[in-house]
Amino acid sequence: MLKLCGFPISNYFNKVRIAMLEKGLEFELDPNCRPSQNPEFLARSPMGKVPFLEVDGKALTESQAICDYLEEAYPARPLYPRDPLERARVRELITYLELHIELVARRLYPQLFFGRPADETLKQAVEKELARGIRAFRTRAKFAPYVAGAELTLADCAAFVHLPLVSLATKLAYGADVFGDWAQVKPYIRMLGERPAFATVNEDRKAAQAAMKAA
What we know:
Radius of gyration: 17 Å
Distance between the termini: 33 Å
CATH class of the largest domain: Mainly Alpha
Number of domains: 2
Structural class: alpha+beta
Order of helices and strands: EHEHEEHHHHHHH
Strand content: 5-15%
Number of helices: 9
Helix content: 55-70%
Number of strands: 4
CATH architecture of the largest domain: Up-down Bundle
């Protein structure tokens, strides 16, 4: 039995959920798990983060580790190419997206989304680091039609949840979308959003955001 724990506004939770749906896996969903440092929660997720996956009651954390486990345990509908170099290219794209783009932009989220005071020094540092990450990502992204080439991969699951969030954050922080001059990005996100797995997760995210605003 697989049980995915997290909440629908978490882009990393949504990345894993999309991958599981695309692979056609049967799983239980717990969409009400929030990050916590309570001892009870830490027993399930040692960093106190989401998402985490419970496999027959044993918890596995970190979204990429979860996705890699699912690829090995359930290979029938692969989200990695067979060729070793192409598989590595997919992991490379995910690293650029997460380590060098989304996690860099995430440093802005407290002031953009949670009312923290603006920090101009931080904004300048993030802008510089983002430029490097996006430059690297652009050298590898193919959009042919998927980000790694002709087939849907885990890199698309990551790109779909991260790129729009970074676009929004940079528009709010700098008055311009860092992907605004990249013509392929918006059509690519629209294309992915038409797939049932991506659409389901996106609608749940929108509903959760609406509920949060109403509250």
